[in-house]
Amino acid sequence: MLARTAPDAIALLAAGGVTHLSLDHDLGGDAVAGTGYDVAAWIEEAVALRGFAPPEITIHSANVVGRQRMAAAVASIERLVAAGPRGQEKRGSSHPPDGEHHEPQKVSVQGLEEALAAVPAEDHGLIRAGVERAFADFDPENPPGEPVRAVEPGTRACPICGGTLVEFTSFRARGELVRILDCSKCEATFAEPGGSTQ
Is this structure's pTM higher than 0.85? Predict the structure, then answer.
């Protein structure tokens, strides 16, 4: 099927049955037609908020900037799909190894409102949902996806490569401040539990 506008493509996706999507950015040059990025953003939001199963996506746009925006959205979609549905265990087990059932901890991400101030208002809901989803079941002792290694408070040199650890975000989990640090050199991720709030 060929959809010539973003609303038409979104309607087809919402109806179900689309297995492959080839996105062009420039769909007609007016607000009614929209862009391929509008379609990618819809898919990203649908995956994050409603568990939508996205089709295979390719990009065939000659618009360099539009192609980059769509590629970033597709990468985000792939990360969301890899993370799995919200509330499910990410490592193939429905229960912790000790057999006890642990309820997900409510976390509050510090600095989110300040970060959102630099983002267009129409993107706030999607970003909040993505952040909430990313940290909903976060446990520094058993993180899903990318390995997160614990470091001692105050550590700012990567134990793997010696690069500089930069704070990515911080949040409270189980009443304790946890900082998430990324290495500027090897891009490894670390959790610094019990850091100060300053």
Answer: no
